[in-house]
Structure formats: structure tokens, C-alpha cells
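Hi support team,

I've been running sequence recovery on a batch of backbones for a student project. Most finish fine, but this one hangs at about 90% for roughly twenty minutes before it completes. I'm not sure whether the input is malformed or the queue is just slow. I've pasted the C-alpha cells below so you can try to reproduce it. Let me know if you need the job ID as well.

Thanks,
M.K.
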């Protein structure tokens, strides 16, 4: 089985598309999901998919940091574009009370609008949450029963939070945060009780470089996903082939590919 990186920020200048995809494939990472966070990225994602349709898929959404930029015209565009081939989820959407780059009430309104669009289009949701777990779950509890699924992208929480997300039917996105000795302690404990059928691996590149990978590099890349997979396999005492296979299959299932 190949690897599937279910979360890549390919719009960053540090990640030129052709070189990033080529390097990933050399390491066995055959599929990538591009995360969009702002309407300005939506057309770029569609164009990249058209260039690499056998490798890429993409999300369409507005990150809570950019909720203040959302305009009524964006919603019609989102609904239309999300029905195109390659568009597999609504998001990255959710709540972020850590930085509060957008007012919290605006975040909640923009998040709920995207949840309602996901219901309308029968698309899974690609979720972001930082220090807003209660409000996030309150909205998800209302919408998840009518959604086909979703992923807690870049999950960094504890066992209790993970169990709450699992109870909602979400997949759990595991990144190189797992390899951070200081910040990743709660996550390493949580994954010990994560069912493999809810595991999805992602890099969130160019962010979250797996710190146990040597020699250390400045930026993360999809090519480093196998390192995260091996680290997780060792931690949960599973053959790495099981981690590779189940994460790939779960990504295919989530994105309905």
C-alpha cells in the first residue's frame, strides 16, 4: 500500500507543487489532500488538481482565522465549486479561540454556515479547533448526525477530547505533533486508545516538522509522512504496514474516492 497525506498546505511558497509531489512519491506518498483556508485559494486548488488528478484532491473552506473575510458571495461560489471533481470536503473550518484573528461570534457564524453547506452537499467536513472545544462540539452535535463524516484535522488533544470526537463519528488526523517530546505528550497517550479504523495520517506541511526525524530540516513535507507513520506504529505496537494500509483506506473512505 502507498501512503496518503491527508493534509498539505501546498499554497505556501516553501512548497513548490512539482518538487513537493515528486519528492513525496519517491518516499511512497502517492496521494495528497490539499487544504484550503481562504476563498483566494479555491481556484488555485482546482487548477492544481487538474494538473495532478491522479495524485491530488482538495478541500474548500474558510479557516476561522479568515472568518472575518467571508462575504455572502463566497457561499454561492463555495457551493458551486465544491461539486467539482477533486473537491472532497468542506473546510478547513472550525473555531480558534487561541489567536482570535477573527471575532468569536463571526467564527461561529462562518463555521455554522459551512456545516450547513456540507449537509446540503452531503460532503464531509475538515475541522480545525484550538481552545474552543466546547463551542465546537456544541455545533458538531447539531450537524454531524446529518453529515457523511469528517476529520478532526491535526488533532493535538487529550484522551477525553478524542473520545468525544470519536463519538461524533469523526476520523482523527495524526501529524508530526506526535514526535514532539514536550508538546505531544497528551497526544501520545490518546493514540493508545485510537481505533485503527478511525486513524488518518497527515503532515500539515510545511508546518509541524516531526522533531524525531534527523537530520532536522526547517520545513515539513509530505515526503516525511512515513516517519510519522513509523513513529505511531512503534508507539501503539502495530506493524507499520497496518498503520500505512488502514490510514490510506480510511482517507479514501472519508473523501469518497
Amino acid at each position: 500500500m502507498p501512503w496518503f497525506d491527508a493534509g498539505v498546505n501546498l499554497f505556501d511558497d516553501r512548497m513548490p507543487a512539482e518538487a513537493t509531489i515528486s519528492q513525496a512519491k519517491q518516499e511512497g506518498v502517492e496521494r495528497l489532500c490539499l487544504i484550503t483556508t481562504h476563498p483566494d485559494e479555491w481556484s488555485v486548488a482546482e487548477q492544481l488538481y487538474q494538473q495532478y488528478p491522479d495524485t491530488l484532491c482538495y478541500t474548500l473552506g474558510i479557516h476561522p482565522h479568515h472568518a472575518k473575510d467571508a462575504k455572502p458571495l463566497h457561499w454561492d461560489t463555495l457551493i458551486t465549486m465544491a461539486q467539482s471533481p477533486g473537491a472532497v470536503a468542506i473546510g478547513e473550518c472550525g473555531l480558534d479561540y487561541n489567536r482570535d484573528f477573527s471575532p468569536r461570534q463571526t467564527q461561529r457564524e462562518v463555521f455554522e454556515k459551512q456545516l450547513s453547506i456540507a449537509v446540503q452537499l452531503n460532503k464531509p467536513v475538515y475541522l480545525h479547533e484550538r481552545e474552543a472545544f466546547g463551542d465546537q462540539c456544541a455545533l458538531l452535535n447539531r450537524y454531524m448526525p446529518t453529515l457523511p463524516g469528517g476529520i478532526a484535522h491535526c488533532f493535538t488533544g487529550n484522551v477525553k477530547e478524542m473520545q468525544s470526537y470519536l463519538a461524533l463519528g469523526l476520523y482523527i488526523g495524526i501529524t508530526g505533533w506526535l514526535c514532539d517530546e514536550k508538546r505531544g505528550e497528551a497526544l501520545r497517550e490518546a493514540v493508545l486508545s485510537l481505533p485503527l479504523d478511525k486513524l488518518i495520517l497527515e503532515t500539515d506541511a510545511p508546518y509541524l516538522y516531526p522533531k524525531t526525524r534527523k537530520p532536522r530540516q526547517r520545513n515539513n513535507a509530505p515526503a516525511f509522512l512515513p516517519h510519522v507513520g513509523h513513529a505511531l506504529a512503534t508507539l501503539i505496537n502495530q506493524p507499520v504496514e497496518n498503520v500505512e494500509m488502514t490510514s490510506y483506506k480510511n482517507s479514501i473512505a472519508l473523501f469518497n474516492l
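--
Follow-up from support: It reproduced on our side and the slowdown came from queue contention, not your input. The domain at 3-254 is CATH 3.20.20.140 (TIM Barrel). No action needed from you.
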